[in-house]
Amino acid sequence: MDLWQRVNEWYAQNARPLPWREPGFSAWGTLVSEFMLQQTPVTRVIPRLAEWLERWPTPAHLAADPASEAVRAWHSLGYPRRALWLHRAATTITEKHGGVVPREVEALLALTGVGDYTARAVAVFAYGERHPVVDTNTRRVIARAVRGQGEAGPPQAAADLRAMSELMPTETLAAATFNAGIMELGAIVCTARSPRCGDCPLAEICAWRGSNYPEYLGPKKAVQKKYEGSDRQVRGLILAAAREATGPVTDAEITPLWPDSTQRDRALSSLVRDGLLVVSTEPTPGYILNHE
DNA sequence: CACTCGTGGAG
DNA sequence: TCTCCAAGAGT
Questions:
Q1: In this protein, which residues make up the domain named HhH-GPD (predicted)?
Q2: CATH superfamily of A1-223
């Protein structure tokens, strides 16, 4: 039995009942969920996604509201630029695609915030197109089951897509299921820390397990910089203040948020550069969320 | 290509 | 406590 068959049969029995897998879930919903899921765990996304889609059921609904509302509705999902980019994508979809989320990978890639993964995920999961979809879970499963390595190492877009293409079944529907299934397997069985090989449909054919779990010696993924004391933390503090405020946040309110003025200024100007904050003078001088 | 960009939960 | 890591993308 092929690897994809094992995965698809397992998926049919074990897929979690996630919102974006319900029948009739919109392409817009898929796009929103994929934005939110970029580097944010499923459990934190689910409640925010529901709120978001209730408030903005189509791209046009979101485009009609200011970007600042999108950033507020993002709450603390992290990487708030994604909210800005999603609002921008909604505007582009409304103005240039007749309000319909595009189904072609090329058109999706042209949207800000949509990269290699998200474009293919939308084309495949929302529209049933046949493409390889490669995320961190997929990469880990392939590294272990096929290459016999405990970790996937740094992403290599071209090679990763090729590897997935070679494993994917020919038939379009089965290919879509396989894309979802191998991700799901990586998410709940072949996890990064403690894989549950006893529950894995690939256990018998897994190259990593077959060679008794050799230690991974290849190139390591870039280490994530410490958050504590980082510019990201300072940005987070400043943006949280702006998100909660009703009017402009003044310098007097920003200053006590962080002791180091150099770092504080750097964080503030980077928020302005990113378009998350803009300078306002009414009714008092300060910074507000960009309403575009 | 290396670096940057949030936040919170699990182990 | 502290480290790791989570459906990535842009520069």
A1: 36-188
A2: Hypothetical protein; domain 2 (1.10.340.30)
